[in-house]
Amino acid sequence: MRTVVIDGPTNVRVDTRPDPVLPGPDGAIVEVSAAGICGSDLHFYEADFPLAEPIALGHEAVGTVVEIGRQVRTVKVHDQVMVSSVAGCGNCPGCTTRDPVMCHKGFQIFGGGVLAGAQADLLAVPAADFQLLKIPDGISTEQALLLTDNLATGWAAAQRADIPLGGTVAVMGLGAVGLCALRSALFQGAAKVFAVDRVDGRLDRAAAWGATPVKAPAVEAILAATSGRGADAVIDAVATDASMTDALNAVRPGGTVSVVGVHDLQPFPLNALGCLIRSITLRMTTAPVQRTWPELIPLLASGRLDVDGIFTTTLPLDAAAKGYAIAAARNGDDVKILLTP
Ligand SMILES: [Zn+2]
Ligand SMILES: [Zn+2]
């Protein structure tokens, strides 16, 4: 089978490897029909995370179940399924919360060097009853792919931002996660969302979705628009030192900064005294993917929550290198790239 691998900065290629075998009696093999390129994949591409050896990339997949172990109960062969990007054992007190991050055995993310990569023809999925969900009626392929990671992340970012009804929120970074967070913040009660990015096309897209565009760096503009107090909540979907510092400076006293961007491996220089004096809450979240599905699926299927238009670009799997180059350029026209094996 083909799988997208990276063996050094910007060096993405499509490799041929043996087909995967079932990862135990609770596992399944999924034939991938669509896989996303995620902003967090770019950390490998841009050398933020050094590679000891080549790894298979990708953690967002939907596809068809082609094989199941004898213990699998909730999906069967031929089912169209989505695969949670974050995997738990599915069988411990932590996993009963449906948040794989709480797994007592430690969670894994596909395409991070331990589990296989989702940008491939076939994907081996452990604990399939926990990681897989048959795609419900009324959910499109693109919606299902967003449910595997980016929308779950943006939704959880807004939930953990303590947004007061009628409140003011700033969202840093208008890639796929930031746009999902923007929509989620409005849905969860924000009256005004400042959408912050450096790229004009992304600011335009956010404005069309009901946000107030602000060109980064945005602290002064947000303070000026809030009588000097700051936003009730700031969601940081970038998580560089600069964006996190801006987020902490743009939130009001007593407000919450909710970080879901993936920082690099270096420590962040936190102004602890400034946060203490202003009673800031700082939350950081890896997507509780499976826990969000019972909330998000009915909202998407009913049309009440709309995240259409986030996938802008579709390429065949063999063009993965081009897809990564487009994603890394972070231009205004291409937000999120879908690969079709
Ligand atoms: Zn991701
Ligand atoms: Zn577990």
From TrEMBL:
Q: Does the keyword Cell wall biogenesis/degradation apply?
A: no
Q: Where is the Enoyl reductase (ER) domain?
A: 8-339
Swiss-Prot/TrEMBL keywords: Metal-binding, Oxidoreductase, Zinc
Give the matching Pfam families. Answer: ADH_N, ADH_zinc_N
Give yes or no: UniProt keyword RNA-binding. no
Q: Which residues cross the membrane?
A: none
Q: Which cofactor does it need?
A: Zn(2+)
Its Gene Ontology molecular function terms? oxidoreductase activity; zinc ion binding
Recorded hits in PANTHER family, A to Z, give: DEHYDROGENASE, ZINC-CONTAINING, PUTATIVE (AFU_ORTHOLOGUE AFUA_2G02810)-RELATED (PTHR42813:SF2), ZINC-TYPE ALCOHOL DEHYDROGENASE-LIKE (PTHR42813)
Similarity comment: family membership: Belongs to the zinc-containing alcohol dehydrogenase family.
This protein is called what?
Zinc-binding dehydrogenase
